[in-house]
Design goal:
Elements lengths: L7 E10 L9 H4 L3 H8 L2 E11 L4 E6 L5 H8 L7 E6 L2 E2 L5 H11 E4 L11 H5 L1 H6 L3 H14 L15 H14 L4 E5 L7 H18 L2 E6 L2 H7 L2 E6 L2 E6 L1 H6 L4 H7 L10 H4 L1 E2 L14 E3 L4 H10 L4 E4 L5 E5 L1 H9 L1
Parallel strand pairs: 3-8, 3-9, 6-7, 7-8, 12-13
Antiparallel strand pairs: 1-2, 1-4, 4-5, 9-10, 11-14, 13-14
Helix pairs in contact: 7-8
Bound molecules: adenosine-5'-triphosphate and magnesium ion (MG).
Adenosine-5'-triphosphate binds next to strand 2 and helix 3.
Length: 345
């Protein structure tokens, strides 16, 4: 893809741990389950024929239970783990064809990773942790500190520059990890369960802050989580992994409305659907027949209005809600029954 800045393409990616891993990709093993392969060969199929692409500037969420292959996948993208087979492109660079110095360059300039348990240097201050990537890159001291200060301000850590990680709460340490990644101004951020260690309140705040940052920065992000509510809140696209395979990919609404199998359905059961589904997902489309104009009296909403806002409106007014597009044209109506059906699905 030309002129792109941060798109990722993954084709037929496999990672098998164990002796002589290449043999497991042969046809006779491909249809066998992960546990069968492990029992008979001792090899673990951590990634099985994974395909996806991430457009520039989007947040791509990878979600799945423990052991489903998420960390292996994100690490393979910059070859912190060597894939067994497949193709990875970052923009038009063939990652598997990179030599050592090209890989180092890729990791220092284009892609930054935020690790699950912060991965901070305990003997370095917040400032010195933040400038680390820029040191590797060889930037001058003034430039390093100026940039670090800017990103520390951005993540709300001004005043903590001279403190050590142990003097910070978990949420603050996580922000240092994020600041350190942002300081190198990468096109791509890889985040491996960055918020999983945080308690729910701080976690929600961090999610909101990440989304706020993203509305300014428009980075391409691969974000890993095992929490579907987090995935739905943060992701533009979500893939769900099970035993090394992608079992579903789609937008948050697609995942909630059409879970592909029992595994995904089980995740979706606990989701607050009203915070994911929008008026356009449940409305009856308006058919223009010349007689149905917009009724200025009744309640109305936009196509992107969430059900959580529509429900109180439906309770207050005893009539359907008119759905208007961004030019204020009537495009549909939301009826109470449609909302009840969607929520019960
Ligand atoms: N170095 C390794 N050697 C052998 N097997 C490994 C290795 N690393 C990971 N695995 C196996 O690969 C599978 C996928 O592991 P991975 O760490 O990618 O899962 P995960 O989805 O990130 O899980 P979690 O949510 O617990 O972090 C697991 O079955 C794991 O045991
Ligand atoms: Mg992991």
């Amino acid at each position: 893809m030309e002129n792109a800045n941060g798109c990722i393409t993954v084709n037929n990616l496999w990672k098998v741990f164990g002796q002589d891993p290449g043999r497991i990709i042969a046809p006779e093993w491909q249809d066998r389950s992960r546990s069968e392969v492990q029992e008979e060969t001792g090899c673990v199929v951590a990634l099985k024929d994974v395909n996806f692409s991430v457009p520039e500037g989007e947040i791509f969420v990878v979600m799945g239970l423990s052991g489903s292959g998420k960390s292996t996948l994100i690490r393979c993208l910059i070859r912190l783990i060597e894939p067994t087979q497949g193709e990875i492109y970052i923009d038009d660079e063939d990652v598997l064809a990179c030599n050592d110095s090209q890989l180092t360059e890729l990791r220092r300039t284009k892609v930054a990773m935020v690790f699950q348990r912060f991965g901070l240097f305990p003997h370095r201050t917040v400032m010195d942790n933040t400038v680390w990537g820029m040191e590797l890159r060889g930037s001058g001291r003034d430039e390093r500190e100026e940039t670090a200060q800017r990103v520390l301000d951005m993540v709300g850590l001004q005043g903590w520059e001279r403190n050590y990680p142990r003097e910070l709460s978990g949420g603050m340490q996580q922000r240092v990890g994020l600041a350190r990644a942002l300081a190198v101004d990468p096109d791509i951020l890889l985040l491996d369960e960055p918020f999983s260690a945080l308690d729910p309140l701080i976690r929600r705040t961090m999610q909101d802050e990440l989304l706020k940052l993203q509305s300014d920065l428009h980075k391409t992000m691969v974000f890993i989580t095992h929490d579907l509510n987090e995935a739905l809140k943060i992701g533009n696209q979500i893939v769900i992994m099970r035993d090394g395979e992608i079992v579903q990919s789609g937008t948050p609404e697609q995942i909630v409305m059409e879970p592909s199998d029992d595994y995904v359905t089980e995740f979706v059961r606990d989701v607050r659907k009203e915070s994911v589904l929008k008026a356009r997902n449940v409305m009856k489309e308006h058919v223009t027949n010349g007689t149905n104009g917009v009724d200025g009296e009744g309640p109305s909403c936009g196509t992107e209005t969430l059900l959580e806002e529509l429900i109180p409106m439906l309770m207050e007014h005893q009539k359907p809600i008119q759905v208007l597009d961004h030019q204020d044209e009537l495009v549909g109506e939301v009826h109470r029954d449609d909302v009840i059906l969607a929520m019960a699905h």
